[in-house]
Amino acid sequence: MSKPLRALGAALSVPVLLLATACGTGAQPSGDEPGQLTIVTAFYPFQFVSERVAGASAEVVSLTTPGADPHDLELSPGQLIDISEADLVVYQSGFQPAVDEAVAQQGPEHVIDVAQVVRLQPVPEHEHGEEGHEEHEEEAGEEGHDHGDTDPHAWLDPENMQMITEAVATELAAVSPDDAAAFQTEADELVADLEQLDSDFSEGLQTCERREFITSHAAFGYLATRYDLTQIGISGISPDAEPSPARLAEIHTEAEEHGVTTIFTETLASPALAEAVAGDLGLRTDVLDPLEGLNGQSRGSDYIAVQQANLEALRTAGGCS
Length: 321
Prior knowledge:
The protein is of the alpha/beta class. The protein folds into two domains: 37-116 and 153-197, Nitrogenase molybdenum iron protein domain (Rossmann fold, 3-Layer(aba) Sandwich), CATH 3.40.50.1980; 209-318, 3-Layer(aba) Sandwich (Rossmann fold). The chain is 46% helix and 10% strand. It has eleven helices and eight strands. It has helices at 3-23, 44-54, 77-85, 97-106, 133-140, 158-175, 180-204, 221-226, 245-258, 272-281, 303-318, and strands spanning 37-41, 58-62, 88-91, 111-113, 212-215, 230-233, 262-265, 284-287. The model is unreliable at 1-31 and 128-144 (pLDDT under 50). Keywords: Signal, Transport. InterPro entries: Bact_metal-bind_prot9, Lipoprotein_PsaA-like, ZnuA-like.
């Protein structure tokens, strides 16, 4: 090839290379259409609400990969850019330290902190661990799983999800006033679905032989409070906490005292501990999903469906009529 042709080829390759590089940075979430808003959510429940409320008006992405434990989230450089450029960010402070730090550093204009939308309930003292809060902090280790004195799992109460829905509709209306009516229409439909879910839980759990249930970790405090149940967590509020021998002995005693038939495992955590406890007591295991994310084992394709599966699991375990 002649020198002039080689020079022309090199010159043409530069913009092609730059274009390929730009496409691979992850600076914009894939699938954006012209005119669409971009909503970045911290993990699944907020993604679900945002998708329902925004509809086709927005591309909604989750910072937590499907099937991953949101507690362990580490953000990529591309995700930091996504947060800074998003039209709306929906997260919950105190749950994922990496997201808290990124939101503070990137300073997106429109942000919903769910911890400011719903009332977070305190963690019962016995759920911190046998030695109280100090042991709880030690069990949480260096992975950022210490949620302090409040239970972060507020999304498991359908009434809280209604408040989150209204907050998303309100903030999206501030971002795009021309679409405010459409956002509110979608929000109203989702609120109606959540009200029906709430009614299903209330009616389905109204008459049960037992109201106590045992879970691998104590993620279901809001559900228990809402429907007058008693949660007994093997490993406390942190999913990676190891129960002490004394705590395991307490679980054995409480299971026998309340006639518990089932030990509940989760979809995103190892079932080994719950299965071991169930084996020792001769009990069955079943899944109760904290809905921190969906994966191939999830008993439903969205929040509503998985919550319905949770209801049926609780009804069976509780001997509800």
